[in-house]
Amino acid sequence: MKKSLETNHPAEPNNTFVVRYTEKKNREIEEGGNRGKAFYKLLRYKTNLRRIKLKVKSSP
Fold first, then answer.
1. Domain boundaries, the chain
2. How far is the C-alpha of 14 from the C-alpha of 20, rounded, in Å?
3. Which SS3 state, helix, strand or coil, does residue 17 take?
4. Handedness of CA 14, 18, 6, 12 (dihedral sign)
5. Cβ-based burial of 36 (10 A; exposed 0-12, middle 13-18, buried ≥19)
6. Which of 17, 16, 37, 15 is CA-nearest to residue 26?
7. Fewest beta carbons within 10 Å, which of 31, 33, 42, 43?
8. The pTM is what?
């Protein structure tokens, strides 16, 4: 999933694609799209995991 966000499409720079992608996801959530919600839950979960790992590494 991460790769699709990072790949550079020749037609447009990276960040515009990401912005458009997030807008689409937000619209899905507003319309009550379960897939969008699940996506964000997963994203939140992953970032939380990363934070926990960083905390564990940084602690002496």
1. 12-58
2. 10
3. helix
4. negative
5. middle
6. 37
7. 31
8. 0.26
Angle of helix 14-30 versus helix 34-58 axis, rounded to 10? 120
Burial label, 29 (beta-carbon count in 10 A; 0-12, 13-18, 19+): middle
17, 9 Cβ separation under 8 angstroms: yes
Percent of the chain past pLDDT 70, that is, above it, reads: 32
Tell me the two tokens of residue 10: 């020749």
**Which stretches in the chain have pLDDT values below 70?**
1-19, 25, 28-38, 52-60
Residue 31 — φ and ψ, nearest 5°? Answer: -80, 0
Tally: H helices and E strands in the chain: 3, 0
